[in-house]
Amino acid sequence: MKIWTFVQENYYMLVYALTLFVSLATYRKYYDTALKYFPMIITYTLLNEILGYLVRTYDEISFFNEMKFSNYNDIIYNIYAIIFFCFFYHVYRQLIANVKYKKWITYGTFLMLTGYVISAQFQNPLDTNLYYALGIGSYILVFCVALYFKDKKEKNLNLIQPYNLMFWVSISIVTFYSIFPIIYIIGYTDYQIWEAYGLRSILRALIVIMYSLLIVGFLKGRRLAFR
After folding, report:
1. For the chain, which residues score pLDDT lower than 70?
2. Which of 70, 72, 135, 172 has the most CB atoms in a 10 Å sphere around its CB?
3. Do residues 42 and 19 make contact, with C-beta atoms less than 8 angstroms apart?
4. Helices vs. strands in the chain: H and E counts, helices first
5. Max alpha carbon distance in the chain (Å)?
6. Cβ–Cβ under 8 Å, residues 66 and 75
């Protein structure tokens, strides 16, 4: 029963695991591309979620000695977000040819990091998610996707490339990160709305959609189509 309850409450973790399996099974398609470390990020995502669940659920697994902080797991999500954003900023900077766009992504990276530093002055990153900085990082990532497609258009390449893994990665990022920050900030600033509109379920559905799109990309992607 405990296992079934865990699956019901955390079914999105199974999607992480499936995505990781597919990413490794198809790794030969992109092992020498800008996404060569992507399976490591997916693994990190899965392990981070499992650790977060364990800390949140079991008092004996904690980052703090004080009992009142025993279920606080926000610090691992703050660290994860920074690493995740930096990874994808780097990926898009590698793939974009336009030097001006590359500089914009570099500026965006510093803006995201500055956002986390400033947020940490007003919120304790050990016991709360730095959700405003997360919002900044999310929309900078969406901006990177827009620059990527704009760069492709300037090179007279088709924007819709179903056999290009980066097409599916980009679509999944826009689908999730254009909506996720809004839901997340509401969850931290107005819990009544979060509960009333079932935003937790919507957020988990977005996770499933995002990683399902990634699975499609891994399966449909072709080695020569990557660019």
Report:
1. 1-4, 6-7, 62-71, 224-227
2. 172
3. yes
4. 10, 0
5. 59
6. no
